[in-house]
Amino acid sequence: MIDKNDKPRNADVLIAELQEFRDEVIVKYPKKVSKKRAKSIVLSDGDNPPQIQANVRTIPGIITQRGCTYAGCKGVVLGPTRDIINITHGPIGCGFYSWLTRRNQTKPVDENDSNFIPYCFSTDMQDSNIVFGGEEKLKQAIREAYELFHPKAIAIFSTCPVGLIGDDVHRVARHMKEEIGGDINIFGFSCEGYRGVSQSAGHHIANNGLFKNLIGRDDEVRGQLKYRVNLLGEYNIGGDAFELERICEKCGINLLASFSGNSTVQKFENAHTADLNMVMCHRSINYVAEMMETAFGIPWIKVQPIGANSTAKMLRKIAQYFGDKELIDKVEEVIAEEMIEVKEVLEQARKRTVGKLAMLFVGGSRAHHYQDLFEELGMTTIAAGYEFGHRDDYEGRSVIPTIQIDADSRNIEEISVTQDETRYRPRKTEEELKALEAEGMEFSEYHGIMKQMEKGTLVIDDLSHYEMDKLIEKYKPDVFCAGIKEKFCVQKMGIPLKQLHNYDVGGPYAGFQGAINFYKDIEMMVGAAIWKEIKAPWENEDYVEATFVY
Ligand code: CFM
What we know:
- The structure is a single chain.
- The protein is of the alpha/beta class.
- It contains 23 helices and 14 strands.
- About 45% of the residues lie in helices and about 10% in strands.
- The strands form three sheets. A six-stranded mixed beta sheet has the order 1-12-11-10-13-14, sandwiched between helices. Strands 3-2-4-5 form a four-stranded parallel beta sheet, with helices on both faces. Strands 7-6-8-9 form a four-stranded parallel beta sheet, with helices on both faces.
- Helix 20 links the parallel strand 13 (about 480) and strand 14 (about 495-500).
- Helix 3 crosses helix 9 (about 200-215) and helix 13 (about 310-320) packs antiparallel against helix 21.
- About 50% of the residues are buried.
């Protein structure tokens, strides 16, 4: 089907064709669908990103990449914390499919440190619970979990049926906190799968819960007093957080908490004693950054430690913020040291990667971040998009005031946060902040994916399976980045697919060592001759036959 040898390689030719492609694809849909999809498929335009339709419902019948609100809350934001028992209140499938598939890792400090990540806790709701209510079963599950493990905290996550039948997980949480007594922290999340249009709603609900139930409960100032930072939106997939912890430690930066890779209850409770919040994944955690700034006075900046140059940039930003010569010098020394191996491996990899094409369709931030790594490899991203990003993740935060709030967004609780009476403490004076801004430092800002993409390249929100097939057929990218749902369909078309959610079996990809890993993995994928040999079953046979195995 795909002849990889006759693919057009000239970027200008490609870009000219992209507009045509967009129209061809849209035309194939029924009229109403076509009208709607047209608003989510746009061409990037340098510094003037066009308006894109995002964070709206997927059209029924379209095969989407998206996940559900429960996945965003339980799987994404709270899942990576090792010492909370996360109980899924619902049918067993919801718990099972969110059990370890994301490859978020953790490292207990010693054998007394709790680690519940390898477990799957579920109330395993049955038909009778749906009919007669599941609250008693949930209470029983909490009692059982407490007796077995004596955790510091238990969180309850609602799945779709819980909302439909009206079980009140918050009431159960209060009841069980009283029953168990002591200082156990028990809290619930109304993160039913259907509550929002995607997992993005779950992030917001999780952020609210983090703020209400965990952040700010422990005021003790621990560890070194200088350079105290948090890293928000880093989930330790494939060990990313371990690499970033290593780099911070080497520079003498005190990373108090990452939200929530390799985290613990205590790290969340104590995070408000930091002097700077760095936001890595804007989509999933910008709410926590905003709330912590309002309540405690901690400024936040967007960082992006995916790619060796981007990691260096992040370190320089931290050093610039603290403005301490000692840190500035140390950071430069570490960058110089780390870059030696980075350059060696990159030079080797580039022999096979320069000029190759990539497409990235993942989540709400990686489709952007990973473009830096491809850039370092000399590859062009000709099409990219998020599954569930909002307009600000595409066009930049400046469009936030113009985003229309629809019924689906209103469904998510907005908590009002005010300045903490005793603990609000501006980390910098107005003048200091202004001086930093004059030097080019940007606070509370994210410019989105589109400004980085080459003019004329395709940006597609909530890519459908049909659109993906067409993109691959026409452009024959050298690597397609997406997730497990796309992986084998794409590979059957003779194109290697890199999972950018769980990294397949790879990682870490963050930081300097992560960049090295990525260069090697991508070099191997785009340089392998085997993909040309792959024939999908339908290319050899008129029809595909299968027999049942049971
Ligand atoms: Fe943020 Fe993530 Fe992502 Fe995300 Fe995700 Fe993920 Fe992702 Mo999968 S929090 S938005 S909801 S960076 S699980 S670690 S890879 S879709 S791009």
